[in-house]
Design brief:
Length: 431
């Protein structure tokens, strides 16, 4: 494959670009308000490539240069028990975790593998620089797995308090470095430090929501649903921390509309945040494009109270052109909040009815679906996709597949660039 099957378009000024041959382009060169780039594919009508593994069957609409081994794809099935409980005749579950009986084999038990495979397949073969990834947990595990499998040099930076929730089912490759950020820090701090490292020589940033491969990799959840049912779903429900996966669903929905074979109906987005950290929900309910800011101390306090700690991005792509706000406006969508108690109850209900354990973020999504149905926002006959972004962790543990991870290096938020560079280079030499 090559980068020649797509271009990148700025959603603010409409300038188009060829993707960078030295890595990947993350932002427009023009001076204007922040805006995402969007991949535009030369094939308006997607073909499904059965010869490719996992999500790469959708390679026509992925900004990738190659096909990577080991890739999984979304598993979508029609719900029976939860569907009856909610009196939804057309509820489908997009399960992105570990559930062998459903042919779901995500070894990190998270849909973040979808973005990691897509991003890594966008990296040119032979790239010698080190990709820098920041994470609150699940994304980090996904990149540790995929980069190790494919020997792609990477530095994954996570808050130290996230370490107990990290594991791999196989050995980490020496070219992949796990760095812990020590102290009273959260995901926002990891993003800031990762940006500093990514700007250093011999490193480059993964890019987060700005990376079109991250979004389109997660967008394969919607593609898989549309392929199964032959049309665009009426509703899409997902828990959000940054909202990148929700943006991804919206963008894929637009491509499916343009394809012309999957119906002409609109896709309503339903995003759920974990209370008390509901920065996007608060802004949306006030019909504000700009986020409602509070003191750093207050934000940290709310993040520290989260049940689903991965839903903790303090700088989500909400206001940016083409971001969460625009996706919600364009879809006529909704936002919800769910407390820990509501999420746990919803997770227990799902496990009892459907038969598999969920990650906390997925429990938040189920709680949101319950609220959407109770509010009458989803009709009984409408086609609904519930994105279960992680589950099956208990199964992996029972099978003895979870290997705890220890960091290769420990960094501090206050470290200067030279000290960070020396620590990273030292870890690479030891590996």
């Amino acid at each position: 494959m090559s980068r020649n099957h797509y271009t990148l378009r700025c959603l603010q000024c409409n300038r188009t670009y060829e993707d960078s041959s030295a890595g990947f382009l993350l932002e427009c060169a023009e001076k204007h308000e922040p805006a995402l780039l969007r991949a535009e594919y030369f094939r308006n009508r997607i073909a499904f490539h059965d010869e490719n593994p996992g999500l790469f069957r959708y390679s026509d609409w992925l900004p990738v240069r190659r096909i990577l081994k080991g890739a999984q794809g979304p598993i979508v099935y029609r719900s029976e028990a939860l569907s009856r409980y909610l009196r939804l005749d057309n509820l489908s579950i997009a399960f992105n975790g570990y559930w062998p009986e459903r042919d779901a084999f995500f070894e990190t038990a998270s849909f973040k593998e979808l973005e990691a495979y897509a991003v890594c397949a966008r990296v040119p073969a032979g790239e010698r620089r080190t990709m820098v990834v920041s994470s609150a947990g699940n994304t980090g595990m996904a990149f540790l797995k995929v980069c190790s499998e494919n020997e792609i040099p990477a530095l994954v930076l996570v808050p130290e308090k996230a370490l107990p929730n990290l594991w791999l089912a196989a050995e980490k490759h020496p070219c992949v470095i796990l760095a812990a950020l020590a102290g009273d820090v959260d995901y926002f701090d990891a993003i800031e430090v990762a940006q500093r490292i990514g700007a250093l020589e011999d490193f480059y940033p993964e890019g987060g929501a700005a990376n079109v491969a991250r979004r389109d990799g997660m967008g394969t959840v919607l593609l898989s649903s549309a392929e199964l049912f032959g049309r665009i779903p009426d509703h899409y429900v997902q828990a959000v921390g940054s909202g990148t996966g929700g943006i991804a669903a919206w963008e894929m929905g637009l491509r499916l509309l343009a394809d012309g074979r999957f119906g002409s109906g609109g896709l309503k987005l339903h995003f759920v945040q974990n209370a008390p950290f509901t920065i996007m929900t608060d802004a949306w309910e006030r019909d504000r494009r700009e986020l409602v800011h509070e003191s750093e101390e207050g934000a940290r306090d709310r993040v520290n109270q989260l049940y689903a700690s991965v839903l903790s991005n303090r700088v989500p792509p909400y206001s940016v052109r083409g971001g969460v706000y625009d996706a919600l406006r364009g879809s006529g969508g909704f936002m919800y909040s769910a407390t820990e108690r509501e999420a746990r109850a919803a997770g227990a209900l799902f496990e009892r009815l459907e038969g598999i354990d969920l990650n906390p973020a997925a429990e938040v999504a189920v709680a949101g679906l319950l609220k959407a149905r109770s509010a009458g926002r989803i009709g009984r006959k409408e086609l609904v996709v519930l994105n279960i972004t992680g589950g099956g962790s208990k199964r992996l543990e029972l099978e003895g597949r979870k290997r705890a991870l220890t960091p290769d290096i420990t960094l501090y938020r206050e470290d200067d660039v030279e000290k960070v560079m020396m620590a990273v280079l030292g870890a690479k030499e030891l590996s």
